[in-house]
């Protein structure tokens, strides 16, 4: 597994506003969307392309286009939905699958409650979206499912990561074709499984609290 922390002043600026507890939901959604587009620029560095012959108004030349099969983008519901448009802005022809996962707040284990994506992901590049890499449980379960279905290159785009989550992923996904792209790796996880200093509950900050 590889991890790439995107070190850019605009990323740090947007992340700081996302962290601020005074940032309201509409602003949080807009900034999360913008931040994902910046992360997506780095995350798609190895997106597969093929050569194509074209003719410009001046001369024939050889260019590139995204190869087939198209990449698959998989937001993890619910909070990953707030990242979808930000990524699709750069990959508008990608296909989209959905994975519903919820973390049991007592055991911190991930449970899958909905899956909507191709059964066969052989040869597919997949971008999985989840704002917070906290314990790593949800992302590991999601990535294992994608690789079981045949995905041969998985990039997880997360806004924030904890050192504990990164270490667990590195241990459990050793040798697998997985990259994590994030805006920052924070200090630690607290006893409730929240990232410190973090930004709070990403789903609640995007969409409001649900009981
Ligand atoms: N999920 C969140 O939304 N925030 C955290 O800090 C950890 C997990």
TrEMBL record:
<keyword id="KW-0021">Allosteric enzyme</keyword>
<dbReference type="InterPro" id="IPR005765">
    <property type="entry name" value="UPRT"/>
</dbReference>
<dbReference type="GO" id="GO:0006223">
    <property type="term" value="P:uracil salvage"/>
</dbReference>
<feature type="binding site">
    <location>
        <position position="201"/>
    </location>
    <ligand>
        <name>5-phospho-alpha-D-ribose 1-diphosphate</name>
    </ligand>
</feature>
<keyword id="KW-0808">Transferase</keyword>
<dbReference type="InterPro" id="IPR029057">
    <property type="entry name" value="PRTase-like"/>
</dbReference>
<feature type="binding site">
    <location>
        <position position="195"/>
    </location>
    <ligand>
        <name>uracil</name>
    </ligand>
</feature>
<dbReference type="Pfam" id="PF14681">
    <property type="entry name" value="UPRTase"/>
</dbReference>
<keyword id="KW-0460">Magnesium</keyword>
<comment type="similarity">
    <text>Belongs to the UPRTase family.</text>
</comment>
<dbReference type="InterPro" id="IPR034332">
    <property type="entry name" value="Upp_B"/>
</dbReference>
<comment type="function">
    <text>Catalyzes the conversion of uracil and 5-phospho-alpha-D-ribose 1-diphosphate (PRPP) to UMP and diphosphate.</text>
</comment>
<protein>
    <recommendedName>
        <fullName>Uracil phosphoribosyltransferase</fullName>
        <ecNumber>2.4.2.9</ecNumber>
    </recommendedName>
</protein>
<feature type="binding site">
    <location>
        <position position="103"/>
    </location>
    <ligand>
        <name>5-phospho-alpha-D-ribose 1-diphosphate</name>
    </ligand>
</feature>
<feature type="binding site">
    <location>
        <begin position="200"/>
        <end position="202"/>
    </location>
    <ligand>
        <name>uracil</name>
    </ligand>
</feature>
<dbReference type="GO" id="GO:0000287">
    <property type="term" value="F:magnesium ion binding"/>
</dbReference>
<keyword id="KW-0328">Glycosyltransferase</keyword>
<dbReference type="GO" id="GO:0005737">
    <property type="term" value="C:cytoplasm"/>
</dbReference>
<keyword id="KW-0547">Nucleotide-binding</keyword>
<dbReference type="GO" id="GO:0044206">
    <property type="term" value="P:UMP salvage"/>
</dbReference>
<feature type="binding site">
    <location>
        <position position="78"/>
    </location>
    <ligand>
        <name>5-phospho-alpha-D-ribose 1-diphosphate</name>
    </ligand>
</feature>
<dbReference type="InterPro" id="IPR000836">
    <property type="entry name" value="PRTase_dom"/>
</dbReference>
<feature type="binding site">
    <location>
        <begin position="130"/>
        <end position="138"/>
    </location>
    <ligand>
        <name>5-phospho-alpha-D-ribose 1-diphosphate</name>
    </ligand>
</feature>
<keyword id="KW-0342">GTP-binding</keyword>
<dbReference type="InterPro" id="IPR050054">
    <property type="entry name" value="UPRTase/APRTase"/>
</dbReference>
<dbReference type="GO" id="GO:0005525">
    <property type="term" value="F:GTP binding"/>
</dbReference>
<dbReference type="GO" id="GO:0004845">
    <property type="term" value="F:uracil phosphoribosyltransferase activity"/>
</dbReference>
<feature type="domain" description="Phosphoribosyltransferase">
    <location>
        <begin position="5"/>
        <end position="209"/>
    </location>
</feature>
<comment type="pathway">
    <text>Pyrimidine metabolism; UMP biosynthesis via salvage pathway; UMP from uracil: step 1/1.</text>
</comment>
């Amino acid at each position: 597994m590889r991890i790439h922390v995107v070190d850019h002043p605009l990323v740090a600026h947007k992340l700081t506003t996302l962290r601020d507890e005074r940032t309201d939901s509409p602003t949080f959604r807009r900034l999360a969307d913008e931040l994902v587009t910046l992360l997506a620029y780095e995350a798609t560095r190895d997106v597969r392309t093929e050569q194509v012959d074209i003719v410009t108004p001046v001369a024939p030349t050889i260019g590139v286009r995204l190869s087939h099969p198209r990449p698959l983008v998989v937001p993890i519901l619910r909070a990953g939905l707030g990242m979808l448009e930000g990524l699709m802005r750069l990959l508008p022809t990608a296909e989209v699958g959905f994975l519903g996962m919820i973390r049991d707040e007592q055991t911190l284990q991930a449970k899958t409650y909905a899956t909507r994506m191709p059964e066969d992901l052989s040869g597919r590049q997949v971008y999985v979206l989840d704002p917070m890499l906290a314990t790593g449980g949800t992302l590991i379960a999601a990535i294992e499912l994608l690789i079981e279905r045949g995905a041969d290159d998985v990039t997880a785009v997360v806004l924030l990561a904890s050192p504990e989550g990164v270490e667990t992923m590195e241990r459990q996904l050793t040798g697998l074709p997985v990259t994590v792209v994030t805006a920052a790796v924070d200090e630690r996880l607290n006893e409730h499984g929240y990232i410190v200093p973090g930004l709070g509950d990403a789903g609640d900050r995007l969409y409001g609290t649900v009981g």
